[in-house]
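hey can u run this one w/ adenosine monophosphate bound, need the structure tokens asap thx
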Amino acid sequence: MQTIDNFNFAGKKAFVRVDFNVPLDENFNITDDTRIRAAMPTLKKILADGGSVIIASHMGRPKKNPDAKYSLQYILKHVEKLLGVPVKFAADCAKASDMAASLKNGEALLLENLRFYAEEEGKARGLAEDATDEEKATAKKAIKESQKEFTKTLASYADCYVNDAFGTAHRAHASTALIAKHFDENNKMFGYLMEKEVLAVQKILSDIERPFTAIMGGSKVSSKIEIIENLLGKVDNLILAGGMTYTFSKAMGGNIGISICESDKLDLALELIEKAKKNNVNLVLAVDAKIGDDFSNDCNTQFVSVKEIPDGWEGLDIGPETEKIFAEVIKNSKTILWNGPTGVFEFENFTSGSKAVANAIVEATKKGAFSLVGGGDSVACINKFGLADQVSYVSTGGGALLEAIEGKVLPGIEAIRGF
Ligand code: AMP
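ok here u go:
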């Protein structure tokens, strides 16, 4: 397989798919540039070799072309600053042939938001709500056809294709997967970020040192069923925390007050408990909770058993007893995956559980464990605690990471690897 390190970009134009989908404030200032920084090693390597880059990304979920509030123009200056060279801007990503053709070695061009074109995702836009099945089918066929042209146009800008957008690797979009078909195997490759992400996933999937512990937090069971079921076939310990706690507690007959709960998932919770037993997985659930009488940072709080939450109160984080239990399991692990906070970490008064988990992961990592933190909110957590550089790997992928760990083949990876 071609790698970025053994490819000489001198005199070549590279189409680099990055994930510059960064958060902006109301004045269009970047509030977190992690994703832009993450792509810099790849872009700089190409320029240093004497190649030129055509940088392509999506931003947000625009519904039309153009949609000013999702313009990549807002990040142009920052990309220039980080890259250290002037960056040209193509205001229409599908009409950039001339700009791409005139790029000289060492130069960079940023394309406008790919999702300004429905063809990027290949989903028809603007269909009437009452469209008939036939109309939907016609629209679907039309967009798939025009997607081919769009993809061909993007591919025509460059001599080689580099995918460094792990965050969108689980989508079979024009620029993340389909475009790869236009380049032969020697001229398409992962960027450095993608390489690191793929390696990290591999370590969790196949190269496991045991005990393997997964900590799954966040708000809902429903969004994590597949990954939880899949992990039950892989891990030694599965720690379930966050809002899910209360669905499990209620399923087991506990009183959960007004805690977040998915009443239609109670049976599923019991099934997962059974499955864990059958698979000899140590399922670790919270025993106590820090509860509040309002969903706010300044509410009244108390610590109670997860089974005895009074009416009118809700569980907003794990309690001190649970922190100890979780930390003990984590510290004795050799492979660790963390996805999702143990509580409402956005409220300062309910960060303690997530902090205890983060600290235990850091401690295990110091003792030689491999720790992977991924999925939006746990990344925000580990950054908030200033511990990101003390775990083995922090993934930039949310959905992509979870799908990869579920064992799904990611189109963006398959397109390069060819399997
Ligand atoms: P997810 O996107 O599913 O990983 O969920 C992350 C969100 O879950 C964060 O915004 C947390 O505030 C929220 N969360 C965690 N624990 C709780 C809880 N006990 N009650 C309500 N929300 C929670």
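Residues 133-156 form the longest helix (24 residues). anyway lmk if its weird
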